[in-house]
Amino acid sequence: MQSLMDQSVAPIQRMITEGREAEAVGALRNxxxxxxALGDGWIRVLAIAQSLGDEDAVQWGARQAFxxxxxxxxxxxxxxxxxxxxxDTAEALMVAKQATVRFPDHAGxxxxxxxxxxxxGKFEAAEAELRRCLSLQPDFAxxxxxxxxxxxxxxxxxDVAAMEQLAEAASGPKNAxxxxxxxxxxxxxxxxxxxxKSWKEGNxxxxxxxxxxxxxxxxxxxxxxxxSEPLPITPQMNAAGPKPIFIxxxxxxxxxxxxxxISAHPMVEGLGESLxxxxxxxxxxxxxxTSMADFEAIxxxxxxxxxxxxxxxxxxxxxxAQFVTDKAATLHLFAGVLARAMPDAxxxxxxxxxxxxxxxxxxxxxxxxQAWSANLSDAFAFLRAHDxxxxxxxxxxxxxxxKVDYEALVSxxxxxxxxxxxxxxxxxxPACLNFFDNPRAVQTAxxxxxxxxxxxxxxxxxxxxxxxxxxxxAES
Length: 476
Hints:
By secondary structure, the protein is mainly α. Among the domains are: about 140-210, Serine Threonine Protein Phosphatase 5, Tetratricopeptide repeat (Alpha Horseshoe), CATH 1.25.40; about 215-475, P-loop containing nucleotide triphosphate hydrolases (Rossmann fold, 3-Layer(aba) Sandwich), CATH 3.40.50.300. The protein contains 24 helices and five strands.
């Protein structure tokens, strides 16, 4: 006899297996709203919601899990993370803080709370909490990574010594984080050779469990072939709701900075790295040749449905904003679909010099999802393919896509911001130049840089590692 959990989830998993993800999203939402007593099964429900990219379902399910599992640590972290993902920073912090009060000796909860504080720009409180985490568990390396996101270790010899001691005893993928933190410390000290050695070891450990798949490069090439003609603009397809400004760019290229700039405008609300675009585009599944052929065989192809789903989900999340910014990590893949579905959408491609982007990604601790960043040669190959695809979107989208050079943006912010706002259809507002006062939390590894304001400090930092980068570029 099937358990209640299996009875509830099996039909949804079958839909996913059969390629009916869009239908699965609706079924999953219905299940969560019914609120059956699933116990530990709620963690499984959350995993399914996350696999579908449905952040709202994750948040609803996390609330159910939090209540039914009596606020235990894993449920508290899931709820806090889901709230942060949808932009509810205040409640995310409250849940995280209450969890540390209830479980004061739980190092993982302490690190999580410290991370949320740092993402909200509360660096003094974040440092205190992350150091409390380390007092509970000195080898909790992720806490050192988070401290490195906003601290300069150049004048903190005791911190460097503590990390060196941890690195000496570290082995295996679960200890990779300490090498990224230590690399950051050596970089702060100007010890480029030791920094690169640490980052290489950290990435070597990460790559033991996460491999770069060259087929991603092939998929980007396929997208250029499929969307080979200029995309038609059909204003009558525009759905009601805020106008989206999609910000594309490889990780660590300045997309977080630009979104903070634009979302500081009073007419704009930022969605961050929202997955709303992924939920809305499930009708085309994974955009394989077969799934695209099936979708386009429908007469007429329901492009408008994708736009309607996207704007309905956005409208349920934002208040009265006329525009939204969206910097989902997969936008470079779905730009063609989203542009066809929403004629009023604008796209901005942030381009950073590949040497700087490759190094910045290589020294960031990505526990999952960015396998290309663990090898500098793979990073250059990925970045070139990414550039080629974005250049293609530029040719087929025409005036709907604007390319922004990161180096120009930070060097000439006033002129660049004016051009960007003009492109987006927004009047100039000085708040965009003072983006560092934007109260929005920053969920990416760029949290420290974004709070610094306008700076060119990262423009030439790659030059200290030019030899390694040149060799990797030549191999890619």
